[in-house]
């Protein structure tokens, strides 16, 4: 379930001007944040229209407003890759959030936060869950940097991650 907003400016039928496409993206995000849509919405638009900027600005504004009203919801910004998630997270640093609104980057396991990255990568390539196939019996689980970051990150108001990590973590 869900819907896809297609806001393209290239030649062809149903094209929008860049301004009209940005306006449509903003209107759609406003509807999503106000709970007026069913299921997730995928923004598919020409590069350079400002999807990330508009989404971040809308999310931050919505979170600040909802926290002032006592509504402590979370927003997950899921990107196609870890690199794009990191870029969006870094862009979000430009917005100064109130101290109660934390942001987090969920990156998944890597050499910097896991004692067994090659085993984890091998398990993932086979389509298995590293958390179930390896981590549950890991002798380093109690002090695991990955799980520590994950526990703290899941409490944040604004979470940045890849599609793959979002599916694995937030199901």
Describe the structure.
The structure is a single chain. The protein is α/β, with parallel strands linked by helices. The protein has helices at residues 18-33, 51-68, 82-92, 117-125, 130-133, 145-153, 163-170; strands spanning 3-7, 41-45, 75-79, 103-106, 158-162. A 3-stranded parallel β-sheet has the order 3-5-4. The chain has a two-stranded parallel sheet with strand order 1-2.
Indicate the mean pLDDT.
Answer: 81
Q: Give the topology string: H per helix, E per strand.
A: EHEHEHEHHHEH
Oligomer: single chain
The tally of helices reads 7
* Beta fraction: 5-15%
Rg on CA atoms, Å: 18 Å
Shape: globular
Strand order of the largest sheet: 3-5-4
Low-confidence stretches: 7-13
Q: What is the helix content? A: 40-55%
Per DSSP E runs of 2 or more residues, the count of β-strands stands at 5
Distance between the termini: 15 Å
- What does the main sheet amount to? 3 strands, parallel
Question: How does the helix and strand content classify structurally?
Answer: alpha/beta
């Amino acid at each position: 379930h869900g819907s896809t907003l297609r806001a393209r400016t290239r030649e062809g039928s149903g094209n929008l001007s860049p301004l009209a496409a940005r306006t449509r993206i903003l209107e759609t995000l406003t509807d999503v944040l106000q709970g007026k849509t069913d299921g997730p919405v995928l923004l598919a638009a020409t590069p350079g229209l400002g999807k990330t900027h508009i989404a971040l600005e809308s999310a931050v504004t919505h979170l600040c407003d909802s926290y002032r009203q006592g509504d402590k919801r979370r927003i997950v910004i899921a990107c196609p890759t870890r690199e794009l998630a990191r870029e969006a997270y870094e862009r979000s640093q430009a917005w100064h959030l109130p101290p109660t609104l934390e942001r987090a980057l969920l990156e998944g396991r890597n050499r910097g936060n896991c004692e067994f990255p090659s085993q984890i990568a091998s398990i993932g390539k086979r389509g298995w869950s590293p958390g179930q196939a390896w981590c549950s019996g890991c002798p380093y689980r109690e002090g695991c940097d990955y799980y520590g970051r994950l526990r703290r990150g899941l409490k944040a108001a604004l979470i940045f991650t890849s599609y793959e990590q979002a599916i694995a973590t937030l199901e």
